[in-house]
Amino acid sequence: MITGDMSITEIVEKYPKTADILLSYGMHCFGCMAARFENLEQGALAHGIDVPRLLKDLNEAIKN
């Protein structure tokens, strides 16, 4: 399960298919340095993204 306190890099490394979802939300940062120390919630909030909705979509993607 993906949570808001996981790092963006950790999520993409563990679940590669989440990269497309992050991109669709405008989060192109999983390749930048901030992605290594910034957690998903921090990154999403910095981009004005609805965190619960993002988490729902990411977790749905890894179920399949």
UniProtKB/TrEMBL annotation:
Residues 2-54 form the DUF1858 domain. InterPro entries: CHP03980_redox-disulphide, DUF1858, ScdA-like_N_sf. It holds the Pfam family DUF1858. SUPFAM superfamilies: SP0561-like. Coiled coil: none annotated. It comes from the Bacteria. This is DUF1858 domain-containing protein. It comes from Desulfosporosinus acididurans.
